[in-house]
User: Fold this.
Amino acid sequence: MRALFALFGAGVGIAVLLLAGGLRAPVRPDRPARAERRRARAGVSALRIAGVLAAAALVGAVTRWPVAAALAAVAAWALPAVLGPDRAQRRTLERVEAIAAWAEDLSGTLRAAAGIEQTILQTAAVAPAEIRPELNRLAEALRAAIRLPDALRAFAADLADPTADMVVNVLLQAAQHQARDIATGLSGVGRAARRQASSRLRVATGRSRTRTSTRIVICVVLASVVLLAMFARNFLAPYGSPLGQLILAVLGTMFGGALMWMVRTGRIPDLPRILTRTADEVTS
Assistant:
């Protein structure tokens, strides 16, 4: 048992070192924005690892149950994303609406007899904030005399969004095959993107009840466990035996599986992308 707690303590120390290293990770000069995002993700992941190991060590030291420590580690890793607000879904909706607005802006500017590159440069300066960094990098690539198809594919890889792929595909067809009436195509893509955003919002509103129910179940279970551990230790004493640890592991696994199913039912799947080449493949 002492060796187990010593391992938890060593893990906490390693996680702290990972966190410090992730926050100090150098930014690659060739792709600063992507390197910044990678460094931010590394710092967040190291912080999560430190929190997971700290929770496991604390629960293990209090209960002296290895299974309880393992369950605490899993809960510390998974529960923040379940209990917190669905920021990813909100960001996705905001990005779809921003892409729709940009497509409509492209359509209106192109109707004024502007070229594709000139239109992109003009609209990038007034684009919605959700996609402005990626559009600024596209504009910089065009100013650096990079071919329009290559710059557009790199832009699509940078955004990695199915709705953006539709807009980029229209622009690619116009750039490579001299397609006419591109403004009409972009206008149609903008309307389709707005319909998609509206439908996703309706689905998200309906499925928010599932997330609320999941949060209530989790909070009730956690509060019950904490209260039992504080005021009714004798009730939990049978779980300290080897058979009790096995039963606790089975119950924890079943509860975790049920929560995963509830979370999956509350998610809205993304549409498949049509431009799937990575940025490294585009620039190579």
Q: What stands out?
A: The chain has twelve helices and no strands. The CA atoms of residues 73 and 203 lie 32 Å apart. The radius of gyration is 25 Å. Residues 3-8, 15-33, 278-284 have pLDDT under 50 and may be disordered.
